[in-house]
Design a protein that fits this description.
By secondary structure, this protein is mostly helical. It has 11 helices and 5 strands, in the order H-H-H-H-H-H-E-E-H-E-E-E-H-H-H-H. It is globular and about 50 Å long. Bound molecules: 20-OXO-protoporphyrin IX containing ZN(II) (ZEM). The site of 20-OXO-protoporphyrin IX containing ZN(II) (ZEM) has 24 residues, from helix 2, helix 6 and strand 1.
Amino acid sequence: AAAFGYVSMGSVHAGGVDYEAVRKAIADTLEDESYDDGSLGPVLVRLAWHASGTYSKKDGTGGSNGAKMRFFPEAFHGANNGLSVARNHLARIKKQFPEISNADLWTLAACVAIEEMGGPEIAWRPGRTDDNDGKLCTPDDRLPDAAQGADHVRAVFGRMGFSDREMVALIGAHCLGRCHENRSGYKGPWTRAPTTFSNMYFTELVGNRWTRKNWDGPLQYEDPTGELMMLPADMALLHDPAFAVVVKEYAADEELFFRDFAAAFAKLLELGCDFDGPSTTTKAVTAAGVV
Ligand code: ZEM
């Protein structure tokens, strides 16, 4: 968090963008009664995660810079099914604020959504640029496969540069939203409050009873009511001893989860991004009274 402590005026209206106005436009359009559980927040968080989670520290490819998912082939990667909902929504906001890059807008929208849904403040700074074509799109093998276990989760998040603890914290975002059969093949929400950011993913994982769902779809787990779900990759957090220690910590201490999540998510959104100048956040600037 120390890296984000610097306050610089230049970033507030970098490139002529009023980031506080963008934040407000995002916050004001999150609710939509006709969509899912009434909020676009969860799918906006998933967009930023899939844009950023392609990063590889081995060669520096991938990451949120470029907003590469707008292009073929990344727009059509199986993992990105359904994310056009989020991209199209933000394209409308981009029309109101043409100077913000799509890459900045997608990452900022996830931070605003998390904060609006009751989660922690996320340090965020502008400076990403947009690519003009899909030449830098990464292959369709960068994001985690829900059918796999702890080794796979470690390999994928390790490639991005995350520790065990950061991996568990990040996957705690499954407190939000749901699986859609027509997007991933899986079905249902992880918690009973899918538009509230909380540690309920962890309390459900630890405290509920999870059995294999008997259905025609891919292997997933259900609770006794059949209403809540866990993916095989979620269950891996419970069955891997090192992951399970962290899962239990977050189930017992929501504040700790919020702190660790905020740091790991801020890191995720900056993977592969080159910012010139010192880091800052629009929130920190506001708090300092510059705006
Ligand atoms: Zn998810 N995720 N994810 N995830 N995810 C889904 C939905 C959402 C995995 C995964 O396979 C899936 C992280 C990590 C991992 C969100 C955020 C984050 C869905 C359902 C699947 C299958 C998609 C659908 O059908 O719409 C796996 C295997 C992961 C790691 C092991 C991380 C990290 C996230 C953010 C920090 C969110 C918010 C959703 C809900 C989206 C929605 O539309 O409601």
